[in-house]
Prior knowledge:
This protein is α/β, with parallel strands linked by helices. It is built from 8 helices and 7 strands; from the N terminus they run ααααβαβαββαβαββ.
Amino acid sequence: MMLMRPKARKCQCISATTTTVIPVITISSSLLAVIFIIIIQEYISNGSRRWFADDLPSPQVVNQWTYDELDQHLHELSRWNGFSPAQFRSFVEHQIKGLALLKSTDQKFRFLEVGIGVGAFARHILKVFPNATGMGIDLEANAISLAQTVLPLDRIHLLVANMLSIPALDSSFDYLFAPGSLCYLNSHNDVLLALSEFSRVLKPGGGLCVSMLPSLTSDMGSCNIRIPKSIWNSTTTTTTVEKKKKSNKSGRGGGGGIFGLQLVAMEEMDSWDLPHSMGRYSICARKEKEKKKM
Ligand SMILES: C[S@@+](CC[C@H](N)C(=O)[O-])C[C@H]1O[C@@H](n2cnc3c(N)ncnc32)[C@H](O)[C@@H]1O
């Protein structure tokens, strides 16, 4: 009898442990699964990969920066590393060169920057064109908070929004800039959808400039979807870049495409000898003007 008791107790003990441990393991794994799903959803939120996680300084910190410090460091927060202030300005200006906008910097226009981040690119546009006003959108609320700190809010309206569904009426903008943001979408279908949004919000005759890398590069440091130059062919805009280059040195003109955008010019950035320019290209297009009714 004495020998039986401990056995029975041991048995009760195992079953007590089992009934406690199994539910704990089940609850913990369910919790882990939920946390994992939330992280994945955050990671690919709104059809796009998270760019700024929680690695930005607070608006209070950036607010202390002097004008020169903003010139020196703001673009680095967008991971445009390795530029001097003059090189970054040159980088911005090269990206919009195809529209020949810089010929008269006193013109008045309304622009949209898609994926404005902390506002480094827009800050230069607003500096170079003192009569320009605009809107900037980005998926990341913490980046938008910083942009609100550094940009003149009487000239630019900033919103958390997705480029796949731009919160603006048709024909709202004279120019649209997408510096380094289009390639963060998850698929070429999304790229085409974004292009149709760009075309929708542009005024007829309005200009578009997009810069991107045609290849996969680093994990988080750069664009993660390969956007081949052929995306600009007849199924998207008007004609292939390569054909255009061969047939017309200036690269201007072209027929109509499903997005009503005409290819204007394509800049290869390799030759600029600037950091971040390797393999990158910038493309500019114009939305077709409405044809006059006969
Ligand atoms: C390389 S940063 C460029 C920032 C800014 N354009 C500049 O040049 O200073 C890319 C930005 O695109 C934003 N982005 C990515 N996907 C987006 C989307 N679907 N809609 C809006 N913004 C997006 C990211 O959050 C990030 O701020």
